[in-house]
Amino acid sequence: MSENIELADAKARLSDVIDRVEAGETIVISRNGTPVAEVRPIRQLTPGEAVARIREIGRRVAKRNAGKPPWPEGRTLRQEMHADDRI
How far apart are CA 86 and CA 18, in angstroms? Predict the structure, then answer.
């Protein structure tokens, strides 16, 4: 469940807003009646969930890059490693 709060009210009662968000509520902050931001609790991942997400990202990146060289053709690994070095 979310509640709309005007920006001025949110500024005046920021501690209360944060307390409510910590308790699980989602707060929508509006400026002149137009919603501009949503404040919601951060969901903490378990270590297993984090590992699963990292592996899924790795699979998607590998699929997207399948068959592509890891760096521009004609460059060596050393050149690629130092491409951003400044003198």
Answer: 44
> SS3 string of 40-70?
CCCCCCCHHHHHHHHHHHHHHHHHHCCCCCC
pTM of the full structure? 0.53
CA angle 75-76-82, nearest 5°?
95
Helices (H) and strands (E) in the chain, counts: 4, 3
Quick one: the chain helix, strand, coil %, rounded to 5?
45, 20, 35
pLDDT tens digits, one per residue of 64-82 = 888 777 767 777 778 877 7
**Start-to-end CA span in the chain (Å):** 56
